[in-house]
Specification:
Elements (H helix, E strand, L loop, with lengths): L23 E6 L5 E17 L2 E8 L5 E2 L13 E6 L3 E9 L3 E12 L14 E7 L4 E3 L3 E4 L3 E5 L2 E12 L10 E3 L1 H4 L31 E6 L5 E17 L2 E8 L6 E6 L3 E7 L3 E10 L4 E12 L6 E6 L4 E5 L3 E4 L3 E6 L2 E12 L10 E3 L1 H37 L5
Parallel strand pairs: 10-13, 23-26
Antiparallel strand pairs: 1-2, 2-3, 2-12, 4-5, 5-6, 6-7, 7-8, 7-9, 10-12, 11-12, 14-15, 15-16, 15-25, 17-18, 18-19, 19-20, 20-21, 20-22, 23-25, 24-25
Length: 416
């Protein structure tokens, strides 16, 4: 089963707590003690696994204690360089390189994880190590350049997602430090704008004590995700507004901004039981994961992950929450909510939706199925009904009072 989930925080740090990933440096040297591979980055992993008879998600970062394994090599005749990183209890990430006359690249990533690690995979139905891989994960640089990627870079490996952050990497050199020139990743090279916030009269960076700016109602975006078979598996129309509270200089800071559909790129994929919609740009990476309950023939939003850069610095914050149950409706139907709806993801993160209509799984004819309306819309319809009924009742009371009064008025006169 292929479930595409964005890598997030460590299991011990879930519970909705914000954390910034820490970069770890790795270096491989040849027999002459000269460096041939130098890199530093942080990685967040998300692994889908069986927990009893249900699917579960384990999320954890590459720890600072991760080390270069002795299997790492600068390569010899007939072999290419390889960086092998080991951590935890039988976890490893192998980075295989290749080159041409003009550039070099990461040819393959191989990740090994241990389901017997009960702290990372509680109540796992399977035990032992598993291996997944990805060919050509789009990490490459020109010769005599180092690769740089400040933005999140997602690599999918079957049921595992690895999101790289703040990457600097160089291979096939024999110096002691990075080259002077950088080859930027596509995420950094693509011009993008910051999340849409209410218009500013100046472009200065806000300080933590600045009053939060209230953004306008977000624009609606239309997002589609196709399964590997090419069939539509997620169809969504919605405006999104994110609300974050984080710590800065020992103070709580509120940050509210809109997702601009013209600036984010949609991505995702689907399996039989999971469907993922990812909206990402240079400054925000938002992931929605929908789950299909085949027993009850219902789907719902079960997992949300956010990675974004705060406006008063270069700090990246991440938040993740599973075990949600929002936007639930039966299969072959869509969930619709025109009113503003607030989805509380954690105590420090919520999402306001506007003019939302969404459907995952079993989409017929590339269009929404019959809409199931949210409680907010149903309550909104009750107000005019109640007001109308009250006005009708008032008119009826006035009419009855008028008729009674008129009858009494006629009874006071005598016929001559």
């Amino acid at each position: 089963m292929r479930a595409l989930l964005e890598a997030v925080l460590a299991t011990a740090l879930l519970l909705g707590i914000f954390q910034s990933g820490c970069s770890v440096t790795f270096e491989v040297k040849d027999d002459a003690n000269k460096t041939c591979i130098l890199t530093d980055f942080s990685i967040n992993f998300t692994v889908e696994y069986k927990k009893g008879d249900k699917q579960a998600i384990a999320s954890f970062p590459l720890p600072e204690s991760a080390a270069v394994d002795k299997l790492s090599s600068c390569g010899k005749t007939g072999t290419e360089p390889i960086l092998v990183i080991t951590f935890g209890s039988n976890f490893s990430l192998s980075v295989h390189f290749n080159k041409t006359d003009t550039d070099y690249r990461v040819e393959q990533l191989v990740f090994v994880y241990n389901l017997s690690d009960a702290n990372t995979f509680p109540e796992a139905a399977e035990k032992g190590t598993k291996q997944v891989s990805s060919n050509k994960p789009e990490i490459s640089a020109k010769k005599n350049n180092y690769y740089q990627c400040s933005s999140p870079h997602l690599v999918r490996m079957d049921n595992v997602n690895a999101t790289f952050h703040n990457v600097k990497l160089e291979a096939y050199f024999s110096g002691s430090n990075y080259s002077g020139n950088a080859t930027l990743c596509k995420e950094d090279a693509t011009p993008t704008s910051a999340p849409t916030v209410a218009p500013h009269t100046s472009t200065h960076t806000p300080t933590p004590t600045s009053a939060p700016v209230k953004p306008k109602t977000p624009d609606n975006g239309e997002y589609r995700v196709n399964a590997s078979s090419g069939t539509l598996c997620i169809f969504a129309k919605m405006g999104l507004q994110l609300n974050i509270t984080y710590r800065k200089n020992n103070k709580n800071v509120s940050y509210e901004f809109n997702i601009d559909p013209n600036q984010v790129k949609p991505d995702g994929n689907c399996s039989n039981d999971y469907a993922t919609l990812r909206l990402f740009s240079k400054v925000v990476d938002l992931l929605f994961n929908f789950t299909l309950n085949t027993t009850e023939n219902k789907f719902y939003l079960g997992h949300v992950n956010l990675s974004t850069i705060v406006p008063d610095g270069n700090e990246t914050i991440n938040v993740d929450s599973g075990s949600l149950s929002y936007l639930q409706t039966t299969t072959h139907k869509s969930y619709k909510c025109n009113a503003k709806q607030t989805l509380k993801i954690t105590d420090d993160f919520s999402i306001n939706t506007y003019n939302l209509q969404i459907q995952a799984f079993d989409i017929d004819g590339n269009k929404f199925g019959p809409a199931v309306e949210c409680a907010e819309d149903q309550n909104g319809m009750l107000v005019p009904i109640i007001v109308g009924a009250a006005l009708a009742g008032l008119v009826l009371i006035v009419l009855i009072a008028y008729l009674i009064g008129r009858k009494r008025s006629h009874a006071g006169y005598q016929t001559i």
